[in-house]
Q: What sequence folds into this?
């Protein structure tokens, strides 16, 4: 525990205090810890990044790299709080529909040019321009920027977007709706600036190491797709003096077991722990095995549409199936990485979310099993008329294990005839998206740290509501939440609707389960979205 | 297809050349096969494996899908092979009995091998004989299509088949068979070309026998030797192909499994102190494949009429 | 021979064309598209992306543009998944990697395999023979996905002698494990084929005659037996070479080499049509080329063959 405290303290200091230019000595300027001579951080990436272009990138690992190479208006600190980025601050009008950001005048591109408000205007227009075909164009619509929807649809020109440069250091943003958390949304890669002259000169090749120009704390030095990418300190970065890590190396290692072996051989400073291995590793390497909550949930969704099975239209059946899932076995025996059991859709770690009282959570598993049997019998299923169902999941060792265990629980406790359907990723998405299933695996990671990022999924009109759950009261509540001052009673009621209607079976909430070298300091364990910045990390002397 | 390879020894060759009294091809072949020690040992090994699959389940305490909830929390510690709790081969990473799973997996893999080879054999033989027998532009067109199909990487075909159709044993057999009939058809065509100009075929044709009857009555029976040889060599290859599919996660549906899938899981956990999860399936995989190889080689030496 | 070669090369063109069309139709028939994702894209955003990659065109038009792009500009189009790169880039980056470790593996597998096979055949029915046969069967049956993690476990984790992955421009220490993992099973097959073919030749009448005439064993083996014994080996090596240089998905996954093998499998799984077709075409060209080369080597080994 002492270690965590130390890390968090260090984080607080480095992000809240103004620090004098780094000392030549190898000592952390704030905490006084001895620093390693070689400030290189090497970590494992599951797969190659989709892109290094801020407006194009769509994967989590790629976004982490883009956060190093570029810097947006605002940043997050180690706890996920908003701190200044290129913008030193912002003001809003009364209605929260106009935001005015003040940019720091000393922010520079890696080629020495000044970062201006115009660079943001260019980048944001680029994100919505149909020509760019950004897969995250919808994010700009989510930000409620004026005309964003029309531009994406091709009905308005890109320059009609509600963003303009008043002068080089003042950026004005006009929204179509009041958005209290707008500034928070500018930490996302899609909103980062891009260098117009470079993009125009090199086209789609502008993110190559030899062409790329960024305004982040690091520059892309090398990129060998499928193998590794190397980023090095950017001397032009306005806050370069506080950057401690000199080099960050991302190795693409697909196989998590091989990655762990390579970590243990000393080739990596950070890797993910495969499901089930955490207890063993924490015993052997108590300092290095870490687990902390993350902003993601894991659930099974019932197909409630017309194409779904008749049995699932009966809430007693859905309830029985949910009750019979022994979540403790899944979190403690299968995943075993400190994941919390889930009885609500929204993870407990979500900011400002109070976990509501749900009946199931307070029962013992034996009570749940008994209730499940009773409910299923009431619904007319028993030994002579067993419930049959098929559960689909996509190819992955962990999904497979959980699905096998869950179907075994149903079989043994309730006599349900459950079959499994493993599908390759794209096929799975296709089948699930077309309601061509009975029961399907689902998971969601929050786009932002607020309960609506999860609960919106349950709205009847949500594009991600694959089970086609339709509850008028829930829709109404979620609409109210958008403008409500106190959302807690609303979200509590929504969770209670979900608990009583059981459109989904919540299984567990994610944890980040890492092996992390003890030399690596200041990893943001309390940033539940795991938005990390290399410039906040440093290596301690051994 | 693999070119000629032989496992017989010198003694065979010498005895072959000294034999003069008339013997049927098949009787001759049988004698030659039984003189091949490696092949005979392999037949017995394979029979032992099959016996194990058949009577093994009688001794199993657990089914292949039941999870032993009591030990799933600590598999590295208490999941190892032991007679006491009925897990003779230990348990897999979920706490399921590896004994039952290995039996079921071996059965799947053998079936994949045999049925896959059978699919390849049927398609390949029909295609090859028709092409060879028809000759002319039909032959040209049919063989050109084979050339094209061979140039499409098998990986692509397998992945697409597994992706496009619902995952099932049937699709697995078809998928694996489909990528391997091509070389079979080439070999068969070559043989057909030589056979169709032989006297007995000419005679049949002169007697007014239709082409279909000639193919089924005269050509195919005479092809059987070489076809059987190649089919027997295809069986282990099918099993290896299935293990590749399992590695990609596109194999048979849980709770069923195959040797390839078990080995792939076991290999992933190689350093986590649960080595039995790799060793038992790997053992059955290797002895099955190695005996198949030896049997295939033995059959070829016995049946391949070349040089004899 | 030159005429023959030219004829073969010309006949490859329609073959490749059909190959492209067949692959195109197959991948299009697979469920899901390149832009199907966990969070489905809003229709308007999806439409923009599809327009950008020409996927809004009718399929025959897509195919036509694709084929003409290859023929006239040697351009295989952009990757749908790695949006900063096009197929030419992906091949230009991944192919040298697989070509390097594939060629090395091929050299190792064929030299060691042939040597082992010849030795086993010469020392027929001795312990050396049994050992060679035993090892080669077992090695052939041992799947690559056991071999690769095992090598990393031993040489990286336990002994700490070699890095567990990466490519670093193909420096020797990064090459050893991939080459070892890839060459083993082929080496085994090559040894097996060489051994049986060599045995067959050694038992043939002309070699017996030579032996009866009292020629020294060494000269019989190398002068008279080796070349004909290599015929079946060569016909096996042709396709194996193509297979090896186009990369192994196992090697790329376990050793993070950034090669084409994994890129290929991934392109099929992520429906990255352009990459998939590009690599398929490369694969087809190489297959056709090496079939031709194999046939030419055949002619050299056996002068009786006429083209």
A:
């Amino acid at each position: 525990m002492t270690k965590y405290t130390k890390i968090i303290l260090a984080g607080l200091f480095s992000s809240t205090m103004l620090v004098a230019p780094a000392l030549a000595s190898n000592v952390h300027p704030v905490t006084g810890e001895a620093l390693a001579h070689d400030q290189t951080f090497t970590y494992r990436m599951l797969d190659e990044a989709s892109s290094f272009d801020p407006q194009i990138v769509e994967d989590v690992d790629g976004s982490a790299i883009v956060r190093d190479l570029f810097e947006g208006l605002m940043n997050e600190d180690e706890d996920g709080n908003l701190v200044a980025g290129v913008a030193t601050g912002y003001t809003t009008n009364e209605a929260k529909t106009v935001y005015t950001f003040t940019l720091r005048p000393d922010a520079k591109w890696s080629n020495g040019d000044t970062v201006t408000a115009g660079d943001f205007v260019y980048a944001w227009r680029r994100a919505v321009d149909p020509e760019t075909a950004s897969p995250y164009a919808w994010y700009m619509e989510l930000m409620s920027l004026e005309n964003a929807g029309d531009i994406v649809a091709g009905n308005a020109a890109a320059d009609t977007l509600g963003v303009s440069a008043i002068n080089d250091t003042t950026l004005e943003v006009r929204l179509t709706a009041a958005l209290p958390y707008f500034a928070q949304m500018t930490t996302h890669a899609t909103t980062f600036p891009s260098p117009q002259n470079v993009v125009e000169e090199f086209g789609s090749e502008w993110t190559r190491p030899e062409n790329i120009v960024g305004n982040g704390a690091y520059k892309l030095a090398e990129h060998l797709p499928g193998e590794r990418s190397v980023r090095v300190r950017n001397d032009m970065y306005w806050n370069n003096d506080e950057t401690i890590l000199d080099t960050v190396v991302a190795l693409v290692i697909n196989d998590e077991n091989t990655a762990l072996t390579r970590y243990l051989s000393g080739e990596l400073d950070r890797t993910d722990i495969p499901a089930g291995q955490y207890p063993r590793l924490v015993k052997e390497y108590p300092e290095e095995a870490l687990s902390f909550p993350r902003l993601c949930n894991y659930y099974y969704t019932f197909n409630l549409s017309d194409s779904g099975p008749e049995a699932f239209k009966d809430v007693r059946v859905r309830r029985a199936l949910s009750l019979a899932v022994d979540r403790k076995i899944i979190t403690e025996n299968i995943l075993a990485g400190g994941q919390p059991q889930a009885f609500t859709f929204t993870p407990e770690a979500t900011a400002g979310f109070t976990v509501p009282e749900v009946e199931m959570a307070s029962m013992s598993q034996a009570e749940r099993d008994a209730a499940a049997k009773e409910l299923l019998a009431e619904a007319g299923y028993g030994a002579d008329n067993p419930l049959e169902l098929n559960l689909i999941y996509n190819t992955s060792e962990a999904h497979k294990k959980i699905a096998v265990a869950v179907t075994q629980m149903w079989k043994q406790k309730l006599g349900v005839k459950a079959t499994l359907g493993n599908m390759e990723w794209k096929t799975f998405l296709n089948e699930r998206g077309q309601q061509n299933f009975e029961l399907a695996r689902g998971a969601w990671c929050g786009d932002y740290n607020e309960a609506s990022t999860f609960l919106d999924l349950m709205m009847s009109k949500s594009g991600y509501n694959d089970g086609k759950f339709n509850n008028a009261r829930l829709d109404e509540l979620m609409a109210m939440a958008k403008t409500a001052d106190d959302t807690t009673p609303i979200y509590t009621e929504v969770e209670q609707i979900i608990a009583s209607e059981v459109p989904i079976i919540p299984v567990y909430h994610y944890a980040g389960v890492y092996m992390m070298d003890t030399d690596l300091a200041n990893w943001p364990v309390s940033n539940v979205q795991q938005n990390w910045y290399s410039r906040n990390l440093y290596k301690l002397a051994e | 297809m693999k070119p000629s390879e032989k496992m017989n020894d010198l003694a065979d060759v010498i005895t072959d050349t000294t034999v003069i009294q008339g013997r049927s091809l098949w009787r001759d072949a049988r004698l030659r096969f039984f003189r091949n020690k490696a092949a005979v040992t392999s037949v017995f090994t394979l029979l032992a494996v099959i016996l194990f699959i058949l009577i093994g389940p009688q001794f199993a305490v657990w089914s292949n899908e039941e999870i032993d909830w009591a030990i799933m929390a600590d598999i590295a510690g208490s999941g190892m092979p032991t007679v006491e709790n009925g897990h003779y081969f230990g348990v897999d990473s979920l706490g399921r009995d590896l004994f039952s799973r290995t039996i079921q997996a071996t059965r799947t893999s053998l079936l994949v091998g045999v049925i896959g080879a059978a699919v390849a054999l049927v398609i390949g033989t029909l295609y090859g004989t028709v092409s060879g027998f028809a000759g002319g532009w039909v032959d040209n067109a049919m063989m050109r299509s084979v050339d094209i199909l061979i140039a499409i990487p098998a990986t692509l075909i397998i992945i697409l088949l597994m992706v496009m159709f619902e995952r099932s044993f049937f699709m697995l057999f078809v998928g694996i068979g489909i990528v391997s009939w091509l070389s079979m058809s080439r070999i068969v065509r070559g043989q057909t070309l030589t056979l169709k100009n032989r006297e007995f075929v000419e005679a049949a044709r002169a007697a007014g026998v239709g082409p279909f009857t000639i193919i089924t009555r005269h050509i195919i029976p005479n092809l059987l030797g070489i076809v059987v040889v190649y089919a027997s060599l295809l069986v282990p290859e099918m099993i290896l192909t299935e293990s590749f599919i399992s590695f990609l996660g596109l194999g048979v549906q849980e709770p069923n499994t195959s040797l390839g899938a078990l080995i792939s899981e076991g290999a992933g956990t190689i350093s986590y102190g649960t080595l039995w999860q790799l060793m038992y399936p790997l053992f059955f995989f290797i002895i099955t494949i190695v005996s198949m190889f030896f049997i295939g080689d033995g059959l070829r030496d016995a049946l391949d009429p070349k040089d004899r | 021979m030159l005429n023959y070669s030219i004829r073969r090369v010309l006949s490859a063109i329609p073959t490749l064309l059909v190959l492209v069309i067949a692959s195109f139709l197959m991948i299009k028939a697979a469920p899901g598209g390149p832009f199907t994702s966990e969070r489905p894209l809003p229709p308007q955003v999806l439409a923009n992306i599809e327009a950008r990659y020409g996927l809004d065109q009718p399929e025959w038009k897509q195919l036509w543009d694709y084929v003409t792009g290859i023929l006239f500009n040697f351009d295989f189009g952009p990757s749908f998944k790695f949006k900063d790169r096009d197929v030419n880039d992906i091949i230009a980056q991944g192919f040298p990697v697989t070509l390097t470790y594939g060629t090395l593996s091929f050299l190792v597998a064929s030299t060691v395999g042939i040597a082992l096979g010849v030795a086993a055949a010469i020392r027929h029915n001795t312990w050396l023979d049994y050992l060679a046969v035993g090892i080669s069967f077992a090695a052939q049956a041992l799947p690559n996905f056991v071999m690769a993690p095992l090598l990393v476990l031993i040489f990286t984790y336990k002994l700490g002698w070699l890095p567990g992955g990466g490519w670093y421009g193909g420096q020797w220490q990064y090459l050893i494990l991939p080459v070892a993992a890839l060459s083993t099973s082929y080496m085994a097959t090559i040894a097996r084929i060489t051994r049986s073919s060599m045995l067959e030749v050694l038992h043939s009448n002309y070699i017996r005659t030579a032996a009866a005439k009292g020629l020294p064993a060494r000269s019989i083996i190398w002068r008279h037996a080796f070349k004909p014994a290599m015929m079946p080996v060569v016909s096996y090596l042709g396709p194996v070479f193509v297979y090896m240089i186009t990369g192994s998905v196992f090697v790329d996954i376990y050793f993070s080499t950034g090669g084409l093998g994994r890129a290929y499998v991934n392109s099929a799984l992520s429906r990255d049509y352009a990459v998939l077709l590009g690599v398929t075409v490369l694969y087809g060209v190489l297959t056709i080329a090496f079939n031709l080369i194999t046939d030419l080597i055949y002619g050299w080994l056996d002068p009786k063959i006429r083209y």
